[in-house]
C-alpha cells in the first residue's frame, strides 16, 4: 500500500511548478493523469538537452503519471474534462489565475460538478491582489520576492539560485496544501481551493531576514556564501577546491579553531563570541581564509570530521552522485523510457516505514495513455476535441 493509493489527480501543470506538485502526489501513490494540450504538449517537452527527441527536463518531474491529450477549447475536450472532474479527488494547474475561468473550467464551475474536489492553483502572485494576472517565471519570482537581492558576492551583482527554486518550492507548497486539504475533507466531506504562488513561497523563505529587518530597520545585503548572523559560516577556498563550514555556536568554533591550528585566535577576547566575531568579521575572516589555503579539501574534511565540526566539500554533481550516501538513501532512480532508454532522476526525499514510495511508471510520451484513460471514463478513444 502507498499513502495516496486510490487518490485520483488531474494534473494540468506545465513546465515545472505544476508538474513538481503532481510528481510529489504521484510518488506517494496517487493515480495522476497528466492532461496536455494538442501539438507540443507540456512546454518543457521542448527544452534541451534531448535524448532521442525526449526532454531530460520534462522527464525529471513527470514519472509515475499517465499522459492524455485534450483540447480544452473544444466542446468535446470540455466534456471529457468535466466527466473526469466528477470523480477526481484533486486538480492541479499552474496557469495564470484567469485562464481556467475563461475556458469554463475554473474552480467555481468544477466545485459544482464535484463538491469534494480539491482544486490546487499555482500562480505567479496568487489569485487575489493587484498582480494576480501578471506573468511570472522562476527568475522573475526570485528577483521580485527578494531572493536574488540576497544572493551573490558582497560587492557583485545579484545571482539567480542555481536551481529553479521558486518553481520547485511552489510545487512542494502546493503538494503540502493538497495533503492538508485531503485531511480536512476527511473531516468535513468538502473539497476546497488551495491557492499558492511563486511569490509567496519565496517570501516565506525570507523567514529570519524579515524578522531581523522589522527589529533593526536594516535592509539585508548579499553575503556571498556567508551568513548575516554567524561567523565563520560559509565557503572557504582550499589549495585545490572549496569547502563549506558551519560553526553556528561558540563550542563549534572552539573545536574548529583546534583543527585550523588557530587556538590563539579562539582565545582572543575580540573573537570569543559570535557577536564579537561579527563585529570584527573582516579581520577575523582574513586569518581564517589564509589558513584554509594551506591544505587540500580532503585534508580539511578529514581533520574536521575527527573533531565533529560540520564541514563539507563543495561538490559538483558528478562527485555528489558517486557518494555512497546517495545510493544508500535511494536518491537516484533509474527508469527505462520507450524512446530515451535508460533515464536517471532523483528519488523521493522522504522515506516511509509502512507506505513506501514506488516508481511505477517512466515519464510518459505525449498522449501515451489517451485511449486508455478515455475508455476508463466511457469515451471513445478519439473523443479528445483534437482535430485529426
UniProtKB/TrEMBL annotation:
Transmembrane segments: none
Superkingdom of the organism of origin: Bacteria
Family annotation (Pfam families): CoA_transf_3 (PF02515)
Alphabetical UniProt keywords: Transferase
Signal peptide extent: none
InterPro entries: CoA-transferase_III_domain, CoA-Trfase_fam_III, CoA-Trfase_III_dom3_sf, CoA-Trfase_III_dom_1_sf
Gene3D superfamilies in the record: Crotonobetainyl-coa:carnitine coa-transferase, domain 1, formyl-coa transferase, domain 3
Name of the protein: Crotonobetainyl-CoA:carnitine CoA-transferase CaiB-like acyl-CoA transferase
Amino acid at each position: 500500500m502507498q499513502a495516496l493509493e486510490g487518490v485520483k489527480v488531474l494534473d494540468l501543470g506545465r513546465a515545472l511548478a505544476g508538474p513538481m506538485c503532481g510528481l510529489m502526489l504521484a510518488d506517494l501513490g496517487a493515480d495522476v493523469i497528466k492532461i496536455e494540450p494538442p501539438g507540443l504538449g507540456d512546454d518543457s517537452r521542448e527544452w534541451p538537452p534531448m535524448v532521442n527527441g525526449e526532454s531530460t527536463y520534462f522527464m525529471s518531474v513527470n514519472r509515475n503519471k499517465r499522459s492524455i491529450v485534450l483540447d480544452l477549447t473544444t466542446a468535446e475536450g470540455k466534456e471529457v474534462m468535466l466527466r473526469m472532474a466528477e470523480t477526481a479527488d484533486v486538480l492541479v494547474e499552474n496557469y495564470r489565475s484567469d485562464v481556467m475561468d475563461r475556458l469554463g473550467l475554473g474552480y467555481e464551475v468544477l466545485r459544482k460538478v464535484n463538491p469534494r474536489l480539491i482544486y490546487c492553483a499555482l500562480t505567479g502572485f496568487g489569485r487575489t491582489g493587484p498582480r494576480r494576472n501578471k506573468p511570472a517565471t522562476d527568475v522573475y519570482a526570485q528577483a521580485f520576492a527578494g531572493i536574488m537581492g540576497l544572493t551573490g558576492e558582497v560587492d557583485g551583482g545579484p545571482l539567480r539560485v542555481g536551481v529553479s527554486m521558486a518553481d520547485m518550492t511552489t510545487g512542494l507548497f502546493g503538494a503540502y496544501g493538497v495533503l492538508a486539504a485531503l485531511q480536512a475533507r476527511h473531516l468535513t466531506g468538502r473539497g476546497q481551493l488551495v491557492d499558492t504562488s511563486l511569490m509567496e513561497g519565496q517570501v516565506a523563505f525570507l523567514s529570519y531576514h524579515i524578522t531581523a529587518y522589522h527589529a533593526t530597520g536594516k535592509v539585508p545585503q548579499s553575503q556571498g556564501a556567508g551568513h548575516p548572523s554567524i561567523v565563520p559560516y560559509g565557503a572557504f577556498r582550499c589549495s585545490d577546491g572549496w569547502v563549506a563550514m558551519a560553526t553556528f555556536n561558540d563550542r563549534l568554533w572552539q573545536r574548529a579553531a583546534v583543527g585550523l591550528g588557530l587556538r590563539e585566535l579562539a582565545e582572543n577576547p575580540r573573537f570569543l563570541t559570535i557577536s564579537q566575531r561579527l563585529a570584527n568579521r573582516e579581520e577575523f575572516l582574513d586569518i581564517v581564509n589564509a589558513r584554509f589555503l594551506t591544505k587540500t579539501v580532503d585534508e580539511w574534511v578529514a581533520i574536521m570530521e575527527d573533531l565533529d565540526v560540520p564541514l563539507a566539500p563543495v561538490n559538483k554533481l558528478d562527485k555528489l552522485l558517486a557518494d555512497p550516501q546517495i545510493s544508500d538513501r535511494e536518491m537516484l532512480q533509474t527508469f527505462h523510457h520507450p524512446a530515451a532508454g535508460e533515464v536517471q532522476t532523483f528519488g523521493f526525499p522522504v522515506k516511509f516505514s509502512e507506505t513506501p514510495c514506488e516508481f511505477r511508471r517512466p515519464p510518459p510520451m505525449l498522449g501515451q495513455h489517451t485511449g486508455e484513460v478515455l475508455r476508463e471514463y466511457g469515451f471513445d478513444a478519439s473523443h479528445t476535441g483534437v482535430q485529426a
